[in-house]
Amino acid sequence: MCVALPCLAVSPQHGQLSGNGIEGVYRSGRRLLSRCRLRVHGREPLALQGRLLSADVAEFLAVVRIPSESGPDPEVVVERSRDAQGTERITLRSAAARTLSLPVEIVLGTDLAELGVIAAGRSGPELPASVHDSGLLWSAGPDGGGVGATVTADPAPHDALASAGVLRWDLELPPGASRTIELRVRARAARHGTEPAPGLSRPAARALVPEPGLECDDDRPAALVATAVGDLRGLLDRDPAYPADACLAAGVPWRCRMAPAEALWAARMVLPLTTRLASATLRSIARTQRTGPGPDFGHIPGPLRDAGPHLPAMCTGTEATLAFPTVVAEAWRWGLPERDLAELLPAVEGCLKWLRQAAGETVLLAEPGTPGFHRSETQAHAHRAALLGADVLEATGRPGAGFWRAWAERLRQRFRDQFWLDDPGGGRPAAGRLPGGRPVPQMGAGAAHLLDTGLLGGGKHAAGLLDKAQAEQLARLFDSPALHSGWGLRSLGAKEQGHNPFGHRSGAVRVHETVVAIVGLAAAGFEHEASSLLRGVLDASDRFGHRLPEMFAGVQRGAGSSPVPHPAACRPAALAAAASVRLAVVPAGIRPDAPGGTVALHPMRSVPLGAVQISGLSVGGEPFAVRVSRLGLGMVEEAGEGLQLGV
Q1: 8 A C-beta contact, residue 86 and residue 33
Q2: Can you list the pairs that 43-51 forms with residues at least 24 positions away whose Cβ atoms lie under 8 Å?
Q3: Half-sphere exposure of 489 (CA within 13 A, CB side)
Q4: How sure is the predictor about 144, in pLDDT bands with cuts at 50, 70 and 90?
Q5: What is the mean pLDDT of residues 367-378?
Q6: Are residue 143 and residue 242 in the same domain, yes or no?
């Protein structure tokens, strides 16, 4: 899966595109090329290896047996590299002691179908091709007035058979020589010959998502972070109307557009690297905020999402509305420029105004579309938005900070009274309360948000919705086999009715929720439980080639087992990649306060990764680097002038 949005290339392990499933080269959600099969001497190469070189480039290695070979050793090696933008280089290398004459042909084809149609299994037959320049052209529509695609080749083919979609070459390879054929797939409007606007440039992507330096005794986090940063850059997409503000698409291949709640969460996770991505994301989402009169004023729209067998659908718009003040406040702590903060303040106030009206006098926030139902996770989001929103209002001289702190205290008391269920095992938080007050006792990884109190677990508001005894019990539950699969937290406990290890909200491991739990547990002092989850996620990333999907099956870990992929999971996915970056920073326990000119370190004394050195971070817009020794001692190695070490 090669991604550099709006471009995407989906290849099988052997590299031959056959048009099966979603194989192909895409741009802006349309398949430009579905078939690209190489034959040498009338034979397809024997595939040996396929691998990713980077987030946007894949490499395939194969050999070809030719009729003149006398022994078992192949004499012709085929190297192919294919990138997300649609450029493929095919290199044939000869190890023969004589000159070889190699007839080479490439069979091409496309249906120009949209990705959604392909995913639903409704794509049509391949379109007829015509000879164009040094390659082939396909157009949608009998008059050629629709969209189209071209494939051009360098060197130009010796023969082109448009009716079969075949390009042919007769290559001479002297001993030890090589020959390269380059194919370029491009989109165009067949009538006017124009091409869609390009995606983000590589320098611009690097500026929005810089890569940190990471060295530690465990070498897996560095590989995980390097892959995650490349994936995040590839998932950057921009609105044509506002090309300066690029945001993260949710994931490929199924969700190649921004989802507000997930984009905010991903930008929040990478704040240790930069505030620029958060700033661009916040501006883009603020433009969608409802500003007309009525009860929806200040709400950020978003679709409903399935919440499992025991809970009604959840509104991603509500999640985004509550996440918005949180991300603004945390970005400000990491060093969001004052001009950006001033630009975003009206949207923050709009979110808080909506929260005040939607919660009413009860201070409990009900789910839109389900009157009387209160989700535990949503109360945690509301509590965090109120506290962090109050910080921003106070710092900027806006009214309301005192009200929101008092409001958060009322919510905290009501939550502890109404959402905590006592039982002989020590109790548990309810997943929600149904109309009439009956609790939903089932629980899963979503309870991790009860530990997320700002700056992703810790900092100024570490009290949270739970008291100390309740937080200790939640930590024990997270460490139990019912919730901890060995690879991460299940979205629904294994002993709960309706558990399905492949259920998005009923048993699968959702990577970002597990990372939220890890950060919250570490900040609250439950390092044993945090370390166990951290090692589980790292072990899973090892099995997934250091490229974590957004979720995988919540099957219990056993001897010799591996995490099981989920068939509908995006990979790469913005949340999983951003969570991978955040995971590597957890052991340092960085608590920034750029406006106050301080930064505090609360490293994990259990040093789950051994000694760690992290550079390339940013606090207050200046480079920041930190080291944690094998004894769990933290030390700032680089910081901006004037930044003091806080408590």
Answers
A1: yes
A2: 44/16, 45/78, 46/74, 47/13, 47/14, 47/15, 47/16, 50/11, 50/12, 50/13, 50/14, 50/15
A3: 30
A4: very low
A5: 90
A6: no
**Measuring CA to CA, how many Å separate 185 from each of 35, 84, 147, 195, 569?**
12, 10, 14, 11, 27
Which domain-ending residue is among 155, 189, 223?
189
pLDDT tens digit string along 489-521? 999 999 999 999 999 999 999 999 999 999 999
Supply the pLDDT for residue 243: 86
Between CA 468 and CA 543 the distance in angstroms is 36
Compute the half-sphere exposure of residue 360: CA atoms within 13 Å on the CB side of its CA: 7
Q: Look up the pTM and report it.
A: 0.94
Give the confidence band of 189 by pLDDT, cuts at 50, 70, 90.
low
Residue span of the structural domain in which 92 resides = 2-189
pLDDT for residue 299 is more than 50:
yes
188 pLDDT band, cuts 50/70/90, is confident
Residues 246 and 170 in one domain: no
529 part of a folded domain? yes
Identify the pLDDT of residue 197: 53
β-strand partners of 94: 76
Assess contact for 131 and 170: CB atoms under 8 A: no
Q: What is the C-alpha separation between 536 and 531, in angstroms, rounded?
A: 8
Q: Give the CA count within 13 Å in the CB-facing half-sphere of 541.
A: 32
Measured from the Cβ of residue 626, the count of other Cβ atoms closer than 10 Å reads 25
Of the candidates 456, 584, 577, 544, the one whose C-alpha atom is nearest the C-alpha of residue 209 is 577
Interaxial angle between packed helices 316-334 and 338-359, expressed in degrees from 0 to 180 and rounded to the nearest 10: 140
Residue reference for tokens 């030390």: 635
Question: Tens digits of per-residue pLDDT, 455-473?
Answer: 766 656 655 799 999 999 9
**Nearest-CA neighbor of 289 among 328, 255, 256, 254?**
328
Structure tokens at 535: 């090692």
Burial 357-373 (b: 16+ CB within 10 A, else e): ebbeeebbbbbbebeeb
